[in-house]
Design brief:
Elements lengths: L5 H26 L3 H9 L7 H16 L4 H22 L3 H5 L1 H16 L1 H8 L3
Helix pairs in contact: 1-3, 1-6, 3-4, 4-6, 6-7
């Protein structure tokens, strides 16, 4: 097992924590059917009936990512979920930098945080040996 510096470990934890916090709050907003969350989902072209199931699906991904032994699976799952968000914003003509790419920014935090906390993954992603 490769050594990891404290700075690298904490940087990874902070990036991962920020992504988890954002996605968890989003999932809870959907599960509790908070007005602005429901309205935002409907404005994106989804029926109100899918808000709760989307919240459940998102919460599953957050839990998978937050558990160390399933974090890689969670990162893959959430990347797919965020891809759907990107596609939705492209479809409705949302602004590129702030809305369309926001899912990409969150995915970068997910993968960056995981890679910084997992030296083998970092080596795999960067091609280092």
């Amino acid at each position: 097992m490769e050594a990891i510096s404290a700075v690298q470990l904490w940087s990874g934890r902070i990036l991962s924590g920020l992504a988890v916090l954002f996605l968890f709050v989003d999932a809870i907003g959907k599960l509790l059917r908070i007005g602005p969350v429901v309205e935002g989902t409907v404005k994106l072209g989804y029926p109100e009936t899918v808000v709760f199931p989307l919240g459940m699906l998102l919460l599953v991904g957050v839990v998978l990512y937050a558990m160390p032994w399933t974090s890689l699976l969670g990162a893959i799952y959430l990347t797919a979920f965020l891809g759907g968000a990107v596609a939705t914003h492209v479809r409705v003509g949302s602004p590129l930098a702030t809305h369309v790419l926001f899912g990409v920014y969150v995915a970068i935090f997910l993968w960056g945080g995981l890679a910084l906390r997992t030296p083998r993954l970092l080596n795999l992603l960067t091609g280092a040996h």
